[in-house]
Amino acid sequence: MQAKQTVFDTLNGEDINQYSLTNTNGVTLSCLSYGANWYELKVPTTNGDQNLILNFPKINDYVTTNPYLNMSIGRTAGRIGAGKFKIGEHEYKAPTNESGNTLHGGIHGFNEINWAGKIAANQIIFTHTVTSQADGFPGDLDVTITYTLTDDNRIYLDYKVVSHGETVFNPTNHAYFNLNHADQNIKNLELFLRSSQRLELGDAKIPTGKTLANTETPYDFQTTKALGAAIDGLQDIPEKGLDDVFLIDQHADNEPIAILANPDENLRVKIFSQRNAIVCFTANGFGADQPYIDKTGQPYVGVALESQITPNAIFDPAYGDLTLHDGETKHYQTHYLVEF
């Protein structure tokens, strides 16, 4: 395993470090300290090294044009209506940052932290103490985010937290995949999702508490199909594409919850998780103002597949438990298998 650490850029007088690992098959995993960002997933192909995720050349591009691109997301992924939630009999209100709601950790989420980082063997390890004073959520958290690259082309993304006080925790990663070597959108890519239902979302993308059936709709990926077919079938809705929370059906540990594939280039990314939801977002409104390194900014330039607990668990414990109590340790892991 080859390892490298460099200074990627600076922000507000601080170095933003880049950490890279390359395995024996030539697969390279790179991360940035800012946002504990998943910066690169490069694989060797007949066209040369190909980065399977979108990225920007400068750190300011993340700050000014797309603050969630490939970022670690927390304390909670998704939206909390009006920022309000309860833990037991205690009511809390987190700061809001999107139309009166709290999105992706609110005003100072994980994506805005310049994390302490290091490389240890085949791991990139980020740590930070997230305080209530900094982000407005109750309780403080000691957070460790670990990326592990193996020689069988797996990336393990691990979130570990120790809570000081009661709070909520539902992290994810907001990587955008594009498996095309050419500068084109993702409509030709094929997707499988182990999901027969999705959450009903209101106008502000807040869960209503109801679920909807995916079968025989544009949201049905129980049988692999092209993303373009789904996108074309959703042109009559405001999003004009996917931005939805898919509930994961029961499955064995060794069965992927999602598979994204480019059959023309024999590339696949399989996603494994024991959490009960995955958000699929097809970058519907992205435009030319987003200066990607190898792709032109445009609608459908990438697809995000964000493993998490369903966001309506914030108000309905039947969908999961996002709460942490004083002194509690929590551990989540998602892993990705790259086939090429």
From TrEMBL:
Catalytic activity reported: alpha-maltose = beta-maltose; alpha-D-glucose = beta-D-glucose
Name recorded for this polypeptide: Maltose epimerase
Organism whose genome encodes this protein: Lapidilactobacillus gannanensis
Keyword Repeat attributed: no
Enzyme superclass (EC): isomerase
Pfam families, per database record: Aldose_epim
Alphabetical keyword list: Carbohydrate metabolism, Isomerase
CDD domains tied to this protein: galactose_mutarotase_like
A Gene Ontology molecular function term of the record: isomerase activity
Pathway(s) of this molecule: Carbohydrate metabolism; hexose metabolism
Record function comment: Catalyzes the interconversion of alpha and beta anomers of maltose.
